[in-house]
Automatic annotation (TrEMBL):
<dbReference type="InterPro" id="IPR011032">
    <property type="entry name" value="GroES-like_sf"/>
</dbReference>
<dbReference type="Pfam" id="PF13602">
    <property type="entry name" value="ADH_zinc_N_2"/>
</dbReference>
<dbReference type="InterPro" id="IPR050700">
    <property type="entry name" value="YIM1/Zinc_Alcohol_DH_Fams"/>
</dbReference>
<feature type="domain" description="Enoyl reductase (ER)">
    <location>
        <begin position="10"/>
        <end position="330"/>
    </location>
</feature>
<dbReference type="InterPro" id="IPR036291">
    <property type="entry name" value="NAD(P)-bd_dom_sf"/>
</dbReference>
<dbReference type="GO" id="GO:0016491">
    <property type="term" value="F:oxidoreductase activity"/>
</dbReference>
<dbReference type="InterPro" id="IPR013154">
    <property type="entry name" value="ADH-like_N"/>
</dbReference>
<protein>
    <submittedName>
        <fullName>NADPH:quinone oxidoreductase</fullName>
    </submittedName>
</protein>
<dbReference type="InterPro" id="IPR020843">
    <property type="entry name" value="ER"/>
</dbReference>
<dbReference type="Pfam" id="PF08240">
    <property type="entry name" value="ADH_N"/>
</dbReference>
Length: 333
């Protein structure tokens, strides 16, 4: 089968389209014919070598964290899926590789594709949907009437998180550029701040939750808009000791993460708020609940552009510009 493979780490490295072996199938795995895959900044960061300490993939390997496609074969222990099922998933860490014609995925990481979405739309959902779900529902326990600040509202995670937060009954503030104000309002944002013109710290006060996806300076300002007892969940770092425990990191990685997050944890403590880092996990059950929300019309995918398989490198370059509205998708089949 064909796949886009990373031969060596590096910011300027291009993925190579090459023939690779069809993946072997474990007894609890399903083999999925990939119809479409989403592109995430995470793919670029992995290519650049930014996560080598946490996820030491050995080149050559295939990138790609989102998939929508059709089950072509199932392992002997698979109970939930059968050949012909239309599914979508975010494969587990160390089992990624959706920039390919086929991928083997554990059945616990898969869900049936929402009926009313195309393969391309479905492929835009898993990583950002699970990120928003795990941040707002699992970590923040966001409740009706609470105030949440979701940074970068027109991005992949932002467009999904705004819709999920509104479904939960929260009051939603977000930042975006002037060109995307109408988009984020249409998704349900109550307070929209043009980040080029205004400073959110002077406008937002006494917030319950912040979903941080930006740089260290923005993170620090975000801590100050929380009310005492408020929660900041960051998906852009720095990783904290809890995350190090979660991934059973070696002692020296635990030490590095403790040091990396020491400053922000200290500031949070001083302000009587909490800081936590989230690196989302593959989760088929949560994805099934997201499917229900999509089928009910509560959440709609936001897809900026669809690239053909041959233009996978161009799709990654476009995501890296930071200008995409919602998600960028690659059509494979």
């Amino acid at each position: 089968m064909k796949a886009f493979v990373l031969k060596r780490y590096g910011k300027k490295e291009m993925l190579q389209l090459t023939n690779v072996a069809t993946p072997g199938l474990g007894q609890n795995e399903v083999l999925v014919q990939v119809h479409a895959t989403g592109v995430n900044l995470l793919d670029s960061k992995l290519r650049n070598g930014e996560f080598k300490l946490i996820f030491p993939y050995k080149p050559p390997f295939t990138l790609g964290h989102d998939v929508a496609g059709v089950v072509v074969k199932v392992g002997s222990g698979v109970k939930q899926f059968k050949p012909g099922d239309e599914v979508y998933a975010r494969p587990a860490d160390h089992r990624i590789g959706t920039f390919a014609e086929q991928i083997a995925i554990n059945e616990n990481d898969i869900a049936l594709k929402p009926k009313n979405l195309s393969m391309e739309e479905a492929a835009s959902i898993p990583l950002v949907g699970l990120t928003a779900w795990q941040a707002l529902i699992e970590k923040a326990n966001l409740k009706k009437g609470q105030k949440v600040f979701i940074q970068a509202g027109s991005g992949g995670v932002g467009t999904f998180a705004i819709q999920l937060a509104k479904h939960l009954g929260a009051i939603v503030a977000t930042t975006t550029s002037a060109a995307n104000i109408d988009l984020v309002k249409s998704l349900g944002a109550d307070i929209v701040i043009d980040y080029r013109k205004d400073d959110f710290e002077t406008i937002l006060k006494e917030y319950d939750v912040v979903l941080n996806s930006q740089d260290a300076k923005t993170l620090e300002k975000s801590l100050r808009i929380l009310k005492p007892g408020g929660k900041l969940i960051s998906i852009s770092g720095p990783p904290d000791p809890d995350f190090a425990e979660e991934i059973s990191a070696p002692w020296f990685v635990k030490l590095i993460m403790r040091l990396l997050s020491a400053g922000v944890r200290k500031k949070a403590k001083r302000l009587h708020v909490s800081f936590s880092f989230l690196f989302m996990k593959a989760q088929g059950n949560q994805l099934s609940q997201i499917t229900s929300l999509i089928d009910a019309g509560v959440i709609k995918p936001v897809v900026d552009r669809i690239f053909p398989f041959e233009q996978t490198n161009e799709a990654m370059a476009y995501v890296e510009t930071g200008r995409a509205k919602g998600k960028v998708v690659i059509k494979i089949k």
